[in-house]
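[Automated response] Your request has been received and processed.

Submitted sequence:
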Amino acid sequence: MKIDLPEDAIGFETSEDCAVVPLNENNYQLQSVDFFTPIVDDPFLFGQIAAANSLSDIYAMGGAPEFALNIAEFPSEELPLEILSSIMEGGLSKAKEAGIPILGGHTVKDPIPKYGLIVTGRVSKENLTLNSTAKAGDVLILTKPLGTGIISTAIKKGEAPTSIIEEAVNSMCRLNKDAAEAINQIGVNACTDITGYGLLGHLHEMCAASEVSAVLEFNDMPLISGVFELAQKGFIPGGSKKNLNHVLPIVDFADSISEEQKLILADAQTSGGLLISLPADRAEALQNTLEEKNTLAAAIIGKVYNPAEKDIYVN
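Generated structure:
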């Protein structure tokens, strides 16, 4: 069923990261919601990761969050409420880091805990960054390393080394706030964040919406230390395998790309980085700005071209 949107509003037709509604003459209002099951044992850390993930959609559109609401499901008859309180305290700590309040929310009983945020934000009309406006000739920059899905699977099976766990948790807890400030400072053509559909899935959405194709260079990908070895040992989440199967018809892999490398590119990320498409002559300036802001990565991972037979080519 087709739904008529308010004038200048943006819904899900081009898979944008947020709903976008005109707020006033100069600004748009942004809104997004995300929540999921625990991927670490520590309730406070889980709350931090879930909140950072929820805030990411606002940052991906060049915006700034203004306030949030909790959304949670919890088995209150099986687990002590102190665990839920700790989860929400973790979320609140990230909201404070983002400079916003959590003004309420809603919780229901459910056998499996889940937590996240509904986030409302704002972006000036000149800074609104869509995923549907990449241009041929752009370069692609990624601001966090890949691998959190594979590492989370290894964590659940007790097979992830402590150093890798710490790096993954640090990445998932890191807000994309600084990266959003950088894209607004330099000016980019398009942006999205890398979450459940993996790099290939989210890049496919960008290419399809922008009517372009992209070439990725695997050797230029930022990866969390040890993730390739974990992939070789078979710690691949079911979602990542589904992601790869979904994009196979629109991706051309070079013969040199191994099955593990394909799965890393399709790996379902939690609170991943921003994927940015911008003119080549601004790439160095953006990389320098991202490095000054200490983002976890500022890697040029590929280029954008006129539409070809496949949406994505991987070398």
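Summary generated for your ticket: The chain has two domains: 19-124, 138-314. The chain has ten helices and twelve strands.
If you did not submit this request, please reply to this message.
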